[in-house]
Amino acid sequence: MAGISATIQEKYGTLTKKQKTIADYMLRNAEEMCFITLKQLSADVGCSEMTILNLCTALGYGNFNEVKYEFRKQAASCRREAVSRDDASYDLPYIPRGELDDSSGLFSRMAQEELDGIAAFFGALRAEEYYRAARMVCARKRVLLLGRGVSCQLAKYMLTRLTMNGVACMAVDTESGDEVQSALHFIDQDALVIAISFPDYYFMTTRLAQFAKSRGAALLGITDSSRSELAGLCDMCLCCPTGTRLFLNSLTTPMLAANFLTMAVSVEMNRRSDGRESVTREFSRIFDGGFNG
């Protein structure tokens, strides 16, 4: 154990009973401590904010923000150690020698896998799901898009498309403690949080979604499976197959989902502004035939 957790353990014996209760919570919930507010922590542990501040002083920190900073630093250090331990596995995606001997055939098989993923995506595609998700976007004063890695890239793409539709939104890289901290003030009952998460399901994206749920925000998930932890948290979920033989995730079908969702938002915006039904018909036409099942 290192970082602030080690400091808490070292000074645990000098703490009061109430301070130990808070310290126990901190040790059990180190990930949440990276972004939790003083008010939320007070409610979770059933102690006053002053008691928490007294604990911060007892641990040797000037204020609560310093404590959160130390938890974020500790989390970052743990991630670096994990990457260092597993460095060899990230050199190159593994390809068996037998596959490399037939590079043209390998490429054809990889292309077919992408096509199969697209076919599965369109086979499950339902227009009403996307209209429902679009209504969630239009019904809230602000939208926060959460993601990390390739999911963050998708979040930033959606940010551009939604902004073009007049939606007040922000993208949050859940690997950045500063961005997570800044986002907390915008998460309330007037917000829609769109959480984007694919394997290996970054913990902070899920934790921030849990925090948003506790604050009364609406939750829309974009993930690879209805069985993911994120899907169980969300009010509704859009699912996209993402696995490939070379990489953990492909953005092929998530980009389709992002396009369809932002198109549906544009339709809903038009409906609400001037009722141009021709735009609705134009969008709905792409779901004719086999797409509606």
Q: How does this structure look, described?
A:
The chain is an alpha/beta fold and 293 residues long. It contains 14 helices and five strands. It has a five-stranded parallel β-sheet with strand order 2-1-3-4-5, sandwiched between helices. Helix 12 (229-233) links the parallel strand 4 (218-223) and strand 5 (236-239). Helix 2 packs across helix 4 (49-58), helix 9 packs parallel to helix 13 and helix 13 (252-273) runs antiparallel to helix 14. The longest helix is centred in the N-terminal third of the chain and has 22 residues, at 64-85. It is flat. The chain starts with a helix and ends in a 9-residue tail after the last helix.
Comma- or semicolon-separated keywords:
single chain, 293 residues, 5-stranded parallel beta sheet, flat
Summarize the structure in short.
The protein is α/β, with parallel strands linked by helices. It has helices at about 5-10, 15-30, 40-45, 50-60, 65-85, 95-100, 105-125, 125-140, 150-165, 175-185, 205-215, 230-235, 250-275, 275-285, and strands at about 140-145, 170-175, 190-195, 220-225, 235-240.
Topology overview:
Layout: H1 4-11, H2 17-28, H3 38-45, H4 49-58, H5 64-85, H6 97-100, H7 103-123, H8 127-139, E1 142-147, H9 150-164, E2 169-173, H10 177-183, E3 191-197, H11 203-214, E4 218-223, H12 229-233, E5 236-239, H13 252-273, H14 277-284
Parallel strand pairs: 1-2, 1-3, 3-4, 4-5
